[in-house]
Every structure is written in C-alpha cells, then in structure tokens.
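Much of our argument rests on the idea that a fold can be written as discrete symbols. The record that follows shows the chain in one-letter code together with its fold in token form.
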Amino acid sequence: MTRGKLISTLVAIVLSVVFLVIAFRRIEFGQLVETFRTIQWLYAVPFVAVTWVTFWWRGWRWMKLLRATHRLRLRDVFGPMMVGFGFNSIFPARAGEFARPLALVKQANVPYTTGFSSVVVERIWDILALLFFFILCSFFITFDDSISYAYGDLTITPATLEGIVRKVSILAGVLLVGSLTMLSARCRNLMRWILHRLPLLPEKVRATLVALFDSFALGFEALRRPALVAQVAFDSLGIWFLTGLTFWIMALGFPGFEMTVGHAMVFLVVTCLMVSLPSAPGYWGLYEVGGLIALKLVNPQIDESLAMGYTLVVHFLQWALVTVVGLYYAGRIHVSVKEVPSDVELKT
C-alpha cells in the first residue's frame, strides 16, 4: 500500500470511529438489546428479496449505459457490478469503484476506461434520482424548523440538510455538464490537441494518453440517445424507489416502530448523503449517524435505541448481502484487491 493510500485509509477509519462513538453515545444498551429481542426477523426475507431485485435492475441499467459501444448480456455486467459493491463493503477508499471496471475487463473485455466512465455516468443518475425523491418528499413531509438534533459538536437541523442537498445539487450539475461536454466533437478534439502537445513527454506516451481519453469518452455515448436516456432515468427512479421501499418493509418487523413510505425515502436520502463522505469499509459509523438523523427529523419523539436498532439491522443486512455475493463473483472472475487500481493494465 502506498503512503497516500495508507493516509487516506487511516483518515477514513478515524472518521468512521468518530461517527460510531457519536452514534452510540446516547444509546441505552439494555434497551438496544431489548429491541433486537423483539424484532420479527421474518420481514428480513422480503427485505433481502427486494434488495436483490434492485441489484438485478442496477445491472440491467449498467448494461444499457454500455450498449452504445458494447453489446453485453446481463450476466456479463452483473458479476462485475457485485464485485464493486462487495469491495466497497470490505476495503477502504471506495476500492469497489475501481474494481468494478477491472472485473468488467476480465468478464467481457470492455476497456477499463470505458467501464469506469460508464460508472461515473451511473453515479450521476443516482444523485439525480436521490435529489428527485428528496424534493418530492418535501411536498408531503413537513420538517419542523425548530428541530435541532446534536451529536457532540455536530448539530443537524432541517436547514443543515437542505444546505447539504444544495451542495450535492451543484455537484450533480457540474458532473452532468462535464459529461455532456464529452459528447461534443469540438471539446474532444480540443482535448486531443492538448494531449498531443503536452511538453516533456515522448510521442508514444502522448499517443497512449489520447487513446485512453478516447476510450474514456466512449462511456458517455449513452447520453446521445434520448430514448435510452429516458429509459435510464426511469430505471434510476425505480431502483431507488424500491430501495426505499425495502426500509419500509423491514420497519414492519419492529414492534412500535411507525414508518411511512415517505419516511423511508427520507431515511434513504439522508443515509446516502452521509455515506458519500470518506469512510471505513462498509460505511460503518456514517450510516448509523445518518439513519438516526433521518429518523429524528421525521419523528422527533422516536426512541433512540429503537432507531439505532433499526438502522443497524438494515445496514447489516445490506452489508452482508453485498459482501457475500461480491466476494463470490470476485473469486469467480479472479479479481484481486492488489490489482485495484494502480496495477490495472488499461486495455485500449
């Protein structure tokens, strides 16, 4: 492990530990144990089943994003996608985002840079879908502006959350504009011109950089087709709605825990915002704080031990599923964490 990777890993682990301490500092462990004793675990079955459906739907969406340049089958992309999720759950620094296109190279011989750029496009759609659901929830759920929930030095209010959403919206807009520029022939030619004229580099190196850039640009080709864009937009909304629905389903297994579908969507958006920060493998700590914040915002009177018990259960079920399936496909496709990302041989 390089020094830079080591530092980023340590920072992520420290951040997650801090948030775990924050999350548990006001929890009564006796009440938390009692919460676990009363859970109706039968509801974990539909929770896992619907979660599995969302994974297949994600694979279908990724296949569509790659269809502009590669004709792939669902089974060609599903394994590499799960490798990415699995690596994110057990390795730091979001290694899964780099392992995913590597697995696609080995599974379907898609150039690494093309696969990686398609993942970037997919993440943009995810952000846009989450923002849509947050805005939609704001029409049906009223957050009391007087609500202020503190975790140590961290104070969360509805205004705080709205500020975070605005920043994410700006980021999504920048990424979207950047993606659209990759479709412009003038922008691509300008980039090639710049790469060809980089000083102090041999001609062979500059030619390689141009080839990598062209391969990377292919991952954005799906944005040229309006019909395909509409399909991917529908898929993104459907995937995240089903994901939110899984939280509502599992809530039925917690006696005394009332959650509407709207509350489940708020839980989804807030936890996703929290895990976007640097964290240790599996997003432990950030996820728990995000879950508690979301549940307190929609129901300030909720018992914190119950809220923590629920958040831990849904987090563990998701983590266990992606870890087991991801490691299975990593072994099947022969993807090693040592290859991610610095030792990857980019195919052009």
